[in-house]
Amino acid sequence: MADVEMNHLWPPGEHNTSASASSPSPDKTSPDADHRDKEAESWASPLDHLATLLSFTMGLQHIMRFPFLYHANGGGAYLLVHLFLMAVFGIPLFLLESFIGQFTSSNCIRVHSLFPAFKGLGIASCIVIILVAPYLAVLFGYPLIYFVHTFISIEDWNLCSDVWETDGCVPSVSFVFPLFCVTGQNDSASYGLSWRLVLAVFLVWFLVFLALFKGLKVLGKVMWVTAGLPFLLLVILFFRGVTLPGAWGGGSYIFFMEARKLVEISTWKSALDNILFSYSFGLGTYTTRSVSYNPFRHNFARDVLVVSAASVTVEIIAGISLTCIWGFLAHQMQVPFSNVLASGFDATYYILPQAFSLMPYAKFWTCLYFLFVFVIGLPALIVYVQVLTDCILTSISPQRRRMRWALVLVTCTLGFLLSLIYCAPEGLERLFFVDMYAESLTTRMVCFLEVIIFAYVYGAGRIARDMEMICNKIASYYCYFTWISIAPLVLLIALTAYLILLGEELIGGMALACVAPLAFLVYVLCYVFRNDCCKIFQEEARPWGPKTARDREAWDRYCTERPLRNSLVHRALKRSF
Asked: What kind and span of H or E run contains 250?
């Protein structure tokens, strides 16, 4: 077994002399590094990067989960907990992932050249994307189907009809659109697949291909549309919601607070889970997709703060909008407000469509709603595919890298074929199962190890100094202290709690949740036992630090002029004593 050395990773003037010089290292600078630097992609404008961040973070998860969690966990109490965790955990983790991506211009695999054995974390993230992307395509195919069906001429969408109802008509809060068109029931398609859903999913993957096959120049323009249009539609729906009859019957539930919820574990757990899920931390999205294509000196911290503020604002606007629409629906159906509360799939495809179907000019508002759902959801799938293809592109030769369109085409084709699993009548059950187990364990594990590696192995003091170099200002004590204390503690608690809960789940759920973590462990073993058989699993690595020769030289000078006696201590903090 070879020693796991890190002597080539330390900044100038801080060389790790304790590492064995004779130990072989698999991480050698590639001879094609300078050539690759010249071919590296970059955003046409820094605003393209900001638009990408906004379109990705303002996803369905913010719109459909936050309002329900707000009402289910004490209203204002949940909002306070959510904002507190965002301040001491969410934003610092956002900054850390953005920093390591921009500083090294690497994807989620190569960024771990700091500790090469942990490149398996990036592989685990890619496996989760492979599991998640196919069902996301199906999830975003539904609004396309319903968008088309809103144009079908029906005298009253809420009256019973053999076309729309199969289990009889009961006046209640239930979905009024043809659910069998989605699940494949009563469908004449072969092999039990719904041809409507297959066609919709194919269109989704085709749009993903169009967004990615030309690289960042096209992607940046697409993200401008997917960032601006959803926000415009959300504002329109907001003003429509607050002006509905009975809306403020639900609106009265906006401004309430159950103080006892502040001390309940379930409130804190719900807020933490929502932050991890909504921002997709631990999946390499911020490391690979956006900041790694920024100029080395780009002020990523400003973008993180703008996007975080925008995301919270969108959550609040969506919360008010949905609460008013729920109040309108409860008023129309003459049922208690609590009966119409829902989140996720139920809110998106059951409750809210019925509310819009009861409004004047129902077809217009329903079309607008499903357009909103599609446009706000699609960027997540585009980003995930972008991360996956980027990880593959950086592992092949520069000559083949010019065939980006072919790789994107193959990826989208395979994704479409995998999506067919969810187009059968039992597809929704499979979708909910994968959605429940595929992501949660891996994101917690990756985020926790990510913080440990960069805050303790590399050192929070070094990170603060490197951020000072990029942003040309002293890194805040706020980020520094959260990286070394609150963030790892919160993630350790979240990871431990999830493992305890996972032990009570069915074998199938446990197996699916452990697929990506097991791949990480396999990679670690392959790195440690470096025989010929294991070399095929080892990703070609590059030294830690800036990618281009010019930025590396500047970093060398900066570190030499500002040496640290202890990698864990903030340089400015040490100077103040």
From this structure: helix 247-251
CA 369, 374, 379 angle in degrees (round to 5)?
140
* pLDDT for residue 242 is more than 60: yes
Question: Is residue 508 within 8 Å of 433, Cβ to Cβ?
Answer: yes
Judge contact between 532 and 129, C-beta under 8 A: no
Q: Within 10 Å of residue 473's Cβ, how many Cβ atoms?
A: 10
Q: What pLDDT was estimated at residue 458?
A: 87
Total H helices, total E strands in the chain? 27, 0
Q: What is the enclosing helix (H) or strand (E) of 381?
A: helix 362-393
* Average pLDDT value for residue range 56-83: 85
Residues 548-575 have pLDDT tens digits of 788 888 888 888 888 887 777 777 765 5
- Judged by DSSP in three states, 257 sits in strand
Phi, psi of 284 (to 5 degrees): 75, 10
What are the C-alpha distances in Å from 288 to residues 42, 303, 489?
A: 12, 16, 26
Contact of 61 with 277, CB cutoff 8 Å: yes
Contact between 108 and 291 (Cβ < 8 Å): no
Q: Which fold has domain 33-155+170-576?
A: Amino acid/polyamine transporter I (1.20.1740)
Domains of the chain by residue range: 33-155+170-576
Q: What contacts 136, CB < 8 A, 6 or more positions away?
A: 377, 380, 381, 384
Q: What tokens does 461 get?
A: 């003091």
> Residue for token digits 């959300």?
234
Q: Which amino acid is at 564?
A: L
Measured distance CA(121)–CA(282) in Å, rounded: 9
Q: What is the 3-state secondary structure (H, E, C) of 465-510?
A: HHHHHHHCCCCCHHHHHHHHHHHHHHHHHHHHHHHHHHCCCCHHHH
Q: What is the pLDDT of residues 333-384, one digit of tens each?
A: 888 887 887 777 778 888 888 888 888 888 888 888 888 989 988 888 998 9
Structure tokens at 459: 């050192």
15: amino acid identity, one letter: H
pTM to 2 decimals?
Answer: 0.83
